[in-house]
Amino acid sequence: MKNSIAMAWKFFKKAYHSAPGPSLKEQYQRVLDTYKSNPAEENAKALQTLIGTSSRAADVIIAMDREFDPAFYLAVNSDVRASGIDPAYHYLLWGWKENRVPSRFFDPTFYMRQNSDLASDEMPLAHYATTGRTNSSAPNAISGEFWFAPYAPTESEWNSVSPALRCSTTKAVVILPVYKGLEETLYAIYAALQARNSEEYSLLVINDKSPDPILSQKLRELARKGLFDYHDSDVNRGFVKTINYGISQLSGDLDVVLLNSDAYVSAGWFNRLIAHAERDPKVATITPLSNNATICSYPIYDNDNYHALEVSHNKLDEIAAVANQGLSVETPTGVGFCFFMRRSAISALGYLDDVSFLVGYGEENDFCMRALNAGLKNLIVGDVFVFHTGSVSFSSIKEENYARGQANLERKHPNYGLLVQSHVKSDPERFLRRNIDAARLKEKYLGAVIIVTHKWAGGIETYLRDYCCDLEQSGRNCIILRVHDLHYATIEDPSEKALFLPNLANLDLRTEWDFLTDLVSQLHPSLIQINSFAGLDWFWHRRILEHISDTGNEVSYVGHDYSPISHHYQLLRPDNIYDGVPDLAKLKSWGTMKDSTGSADVCPPAERADVYGRFFQQDVKVTVPSGAARDIYKLFYPATNIEVVPHADHLPETAVALRRVPDGKLRIAVVGAIGPHKGSGVLAALAGYAQARALAVEYYLIGYSNNDAQLVDCGVKVSGRYDSEAAALKKLDELQPDLLMIPSIWPETFCYTLSMAIKKRIPPVVFDIGAQAERVDELGWGATLPISLSLHPEKLSETLLSLDIDDLWMRANLSTQGMDIIKVVIPVGKTTS
Fold it and tell me: Distance from first CA to last CA of the chain, Å, rounded?
């Protein structure tokens, strides 16, 4: 099925690029109409093949009817707009394969990352429409609701606001030009009146001969109540001329703030905005932050942020007022949705250019460039947030006007593009957004548990998932501080309804150390739990460790590996050989070898031992998940109290495995993501030896390795990544292996994969080191082999083939019945019998 779909997709894509005309469109319409009139299996397959998906045709139709937004799709895909192709037709045949966003609330990249079991030819939108919604799968990283939708205020709301008429104490005139948009305009006016309180601005509403009689009638009614200054134009001047008319004829000699009719201010906004101008007479223009204002946008830079956050836009303005009090950045250009203009700058520079930018699209940028050229400043301020609805609708006229405006802007200011490009690349507004993210985090998570860990995958993620779930069930909050890429840290909220904190990602410890440590301090964590510093270089590894010691917080350390002993976390020699538990002298000798591990936190072993020795003496609760790990830790830190806390059973309930009927071949499964330390080399050697000698043994990898191609060449059947433990357990049921082998050559601290063997009652085989041997020894129905066999595939193969499989399965079966059993330890050269 997949091959036929792939071939069809290749054919139709070629046809589209060579001749996207009526023939293909007609064929698509014919196949679609045929299926809709008769959804028989044959017609369904024809539609699936045409679209290039393994998703059911019925699910695709449901998805397009319920979830696809053609207007949005055209708005965000200029090439589709330019082509004139029907948006649904384009999305079905090409767009979904290119991960194009089909609606405001569905992010296919995010959805596929959260649902990694989706097949490569499965349409994510179809999966969400028919399965994801039912299972409450998140369609994007933020929320499934609009942050704010404007409305026409009620009469009681209008009666609750005070007038904002110009008088002798007025500091600035807020000019609000009106043309269309009944609800947006009325709410913008209402918000400006409601937010005024005692602030010294007046509101001037200019009706540029609106074609909406209901809107015009309402504006006249409100003006008669004396709520604002009102000018009802008898001609349509156009956007920029209307603003200039307001600046030149209706505002006296006062400063002005241009406010779009779809921008909504909050209480206290004006005093905070004007304070920046009062502090510096060289400030010509000021623009606040907004959800939808290109370089002023929050939380995502240069984006229309319409997804709802956990706070209202008014509350966010309150947060910004405190988090960014008095903070601003200089900018080559402002944004016109809410745009302060100093009167002295207007007098010196002239009005907006209503010739080059008759209908907008560049007039404020031009004014800002003229201000720069005159030695004045343009500011983006961080302590004011103004919500801006904006629009995603596009038309050929709008695009033509925008293109003309940009061309005129470049003609008048040849360096404009370069200045803006450099500004965007350096993103000076980032620290303003970062401060707001931090404030939102503190508002929700004071007293939370802070979990320090790495950014890699592996068993630690399973532990953290369960640990965070346990905390949440006990009514405690937690946040994750991930260290990565030598000197970076990222803060995440792991809860089901997580805070969206994009500006707390990739904090550079070299420049943002004070910010991070202050944030941690201000969170007043109830506990700081350290799990791993993997990926961080030793300078920052040590500095964070020492800083945490000095905070006075309750601190715990969970030993998932042996990083307090060596940067060789698995205690393997640089040539990936396990040579017993090393001492400091041996660790030092390893430094004479080339190290291909790429470990970031290399340091002298004695220095590491000294740093961790002092850390562990600072009333830190140290736990490890096995007695074997504790014994190794104790060799280096004998004075430290180390508690053994095994990881909980995290696996879903599942039936014990049924042994298949013996067929003369030994079937051995390995599960997980395996690299050299997990025994990928051992598996390759075993399989290669078996293949060369035609041994009656088959090797299967349920998962993937660091070198799948090599394993496949050696005869290993590799399944590829699995999306969950449940999927891996299902694979084991399908495979029915005789043994589940854990070929790890390092002394594991726990080994989650071994839990699968125990859960399914499949006899495990491990080497006699670490927690893997400790746990298998306790079972009595697995095999513990000498680690020396890991270097001798022929002897290891002979030992595996000589195991008494019947006896091991019998013992496993007795174990399920709660009977006492004995453990099986296989010495070199011996087998069970």
Answer: 48
Helix (H, G, I), strand (E, B) or coil at 490: strand
CA gap 769, 628 in Å, rounded: 8
C-alpha torsion 679→685→690→693, nearest 10: -170
DSSP state of 523: T
Confidence (pLDDT) at 109: 94
Compute the C-alpha angle 402/403/406, nearest 5°: 85
Can you tell me the distance from the alpha carbon of 91 to that of 139, in angstroms, rounded to the nearest whole number? 18
Amino acid identity, residue 224? Answer: R
Distance in angstroms (rounded) separating the CA atoms of residues 600 and 23: 58
Count of beta carbons in the 10 Å neighbourhood of residue 612:
22
Tell me the two tokens of residue 323.
Answer: 């988090």
pLDDT beneath 50: ranges in the chain: 1-21, 818-833
pLDDT of residue 5: 40
Contact 28, 89 (CB under 8 A): yes
E strand or H helix that includes residue 2: helix 2-18
pLDDT for 392 equals 54
Give me the pLDDT at residue 824, please: 40
What was the pLDDT predicted at 725?
87
| Dist CA 431 CA 515 (whole Å) | 10
Q: Please, which residues bridge with residue 379 across strands?
A: 286, 330
432: left (phi over 0), alpha (psi -120 to 50) or beta: alpha
Instruction: Report the amino acid identity of residue 727.
Output: A
Distance of CA 421 to the CA centre of its chain: 25
808, 741 Cβ separation under 8 angstroms: no
- Secondary structure of residue 421 in the 3-state scheme: helix
Cis? peptide before 414, omega within 30° of 0: no
CA distance 35 to 56: 12
Tokens found for residue 605: 């072993």
- Beta strand 255-259 with 328-330: parallel, antiparallel or unpaired? unpaired
CB 286 within 8 A of CB 364: no
Q: β-strand 739-741 against 717-718: which pairing, if any?
A: unpaired
Query: In the sheet where 449-453 sits, what is the strand order?
Result: 507-508, 488-492, 478-484, 449-453, 527-530, 555-558, 621-624, 642-644
**Residue 557 to residue 616: CA distance in whole angstroms:** 9
DSSP strand pairing (555-558 vs 507-508): unpaired
pTM of the model: 0.89
Give helix 213-224 / helix 182-194 axis angle, nearest 10°.
20
Q: Where are the alpha helices (DSSP H) in 414-534?
A: 416-426, 430-445, 459-473, 509-522
Task: Give the CA radius of gyration of the chain.
Answer: 33
- Round to whole Å and give the CA distance between 256 and 332: 20
Q: Which amino acid is at 527?
A: L
Quote the CA–CA distance of 814 and 269 in Å, as a whole number: 74
